[in-house]
């Protein structure tokens, strides 16, 4: 692939764009892991992670990716033979369910397809049907990164409360944390999982599991939990190495420190507003393109869409052609379609995604949209006019600039 001068924009839904501050913080020699600054730094990360998750509960860090966070959450709470209810709105719910099954649990899947959020009536019915309370947890995906569906986690808590069902509510916020509004305690979430490489702007390699007292109580009754996955010593370590059950992920911690400093300097509310404004700019452009009859947003209803990722399609194979064109010619990388069609099939070449999570601002989004506009034109894809004007109008009124403090 020819080199494109100037900074590239990887507009993929993770790993997201890494800020210079994070990269600089990581560029240093190996630190001493036996006492000293790293211990102080790590202890300081915990309350700042809790502030991102909006919880007074426990925060634990694992060396791992999102899949590790899934496994960690299940390993501490779900014993072999126990059932979990998994409302699926795209690929990622199925992934968490497969993880549960491999651990000996019995996943019960509620499939809502690829273009709709969780329907609370069906969730209600499934919980009421479980008269003996075999279901020990609801594994909810806050934002499904394949479909870009945003689910209403607070409404799921309300259903659990209405039905009097004692199952834990677990939320996968790997794509949504620090992008879409999420309030762990206020929404009654018992366990939340996240990872470093999306809204948190740190390279892949850290997994996070947050849990409250209800989840800790369930952990106490587990027949066994492997030493590595056990969250108990990680949440309350007597010795430094227990945070990580071994050597600390040193450089990721320096990067995370820098990222959390940036996040809290901007403020959670301002971060959510910025992502909201940028998402609206993208949707405004896509609405205009859709007039041409070829391009489609996966979700017709804006209320169902995440502010972190947008799933789109063109008639196959134009989606893949567009990705290749904007990357080779203009230095913008779009996300591949995921979970929308059989991988490798002709249909799969219709789907693509925009990642707009974390370290993104208005000029990057205008650059992304401008690149796509150029690509649609170059590839003779019929598309409506005025997309960039529509996006600019959103930014002109909505602002979207981070406010400090
Ligand atoms: C990215 C993602 C995952 C998987 O994370 P990995 O780091 O690839 O293991 C799981 N769930 C959601 C919602 C995600 O966006």
UniProtKB/TrEMBL annotation:
Top-rank taxon: Bacteria
Whether Transferase counts among this entry's keywords is yes
The UniProt record lists the Aminotransferase class V domain at: 61-343
Q: Which residues carry this modification: N6-(pyridoxal phosphate)lysine?
A: 198
GO molecular function term, any single one: alanine-glyoxylate transaminase activity
Keyword Transferase present in the record's keywords: the answer is yes
* PROSITE patterns reported for this sequence: AA_TRANSFER_CLASS_5
In its UniProt entry, what is this protein called? Answer: Alanine--glyoxylate aminotransferase family protein
What organism is recorded for this protein?
Answer: Roseovarius faecimaris
Organism lineage string: Bacteria, Pseudomonadati, Pseudomonadota, Alphaproteobacteria, Rhodobacterales
């Amino acid at each position: 692939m020819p080199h494109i001068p100037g900074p590239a924009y990887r507009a993929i839904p993770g790993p997201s764009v890494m800020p210079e501050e994070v990269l600089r913080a990581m560029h240093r020699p190996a630190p001493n892991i036996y006492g000293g600054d790293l211990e102080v730094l790590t202890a300081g990360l915990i309350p700042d992670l809790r502030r991102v998750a909006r919880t007074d509960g426990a925060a634990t860090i694992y060396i791992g990716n999102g899949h590790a966070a899934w496994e960690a959450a299940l390993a501490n709470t779900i014993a072999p033979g126990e059932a979990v209810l998994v409302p699926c709105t795209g690929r990622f719910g199925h992934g968490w369910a497969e993880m549960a099954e491999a651990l000996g649990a019995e996943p019960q899947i509620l499939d809502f397809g690829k273009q709709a959020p969780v329907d609370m009536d069906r969730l209600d019915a499934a919980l009421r049907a479980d008269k003996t309370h075999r279901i020990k947890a609801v594994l909810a995906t806050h934002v499904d990164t394949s479909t870009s569906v945003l689910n209403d986690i607070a409404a799921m808590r309300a259903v659990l409360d209405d039905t009097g069902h004692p199952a834990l509510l677990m939320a996968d916020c790997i794509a949504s944390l620090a992008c879409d509004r999420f309030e762990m305690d206020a929404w009654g979430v018992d366990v939340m999982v996240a990872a470093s490489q999306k809204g948190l702007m740190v390279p892949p390699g850290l997994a996070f599991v947050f849990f409250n007292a209800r989840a800790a109580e369930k952990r106490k009754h587990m027949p066994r939990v492997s030493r590595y996955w056990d969250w108990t010593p990680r949440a309350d370590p007597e010795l430094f190495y227990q945070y990580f059950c071994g050597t600390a992920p040193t450089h990721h911690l320096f990067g995370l420190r820098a990222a959390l400093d940036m996040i809290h300097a901007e403020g959670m509310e301002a971060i959510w507003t910025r992502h909201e404004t940028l998402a609206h700019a993208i949707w405004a452009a896509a609405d205009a393109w859709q007039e041409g009859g070829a391009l489609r947003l996966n979700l017709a209803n804006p209320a169902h869409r995440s502010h972190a990722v947008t799933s789109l399609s063109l008639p196959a194979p134009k989606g893949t052609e567009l990705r290749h064109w904007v990357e080779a010619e203009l230095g913008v990388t779009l996300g591949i379609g995921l979970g929308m069609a059989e991988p490798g099939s002709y249909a799969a070449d219709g789907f693509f995604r925009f990642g707009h999570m974390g370290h993104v601002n208005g000029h990057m989004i205008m650059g992304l949209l401008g690149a796509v506009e150029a690509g649609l034109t170059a590839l003779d894809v019929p598309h409506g006019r005025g997309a960039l004007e529509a996006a600019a109008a959103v930014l002109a009124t909505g602002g979207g600039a981070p406010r400090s403090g």
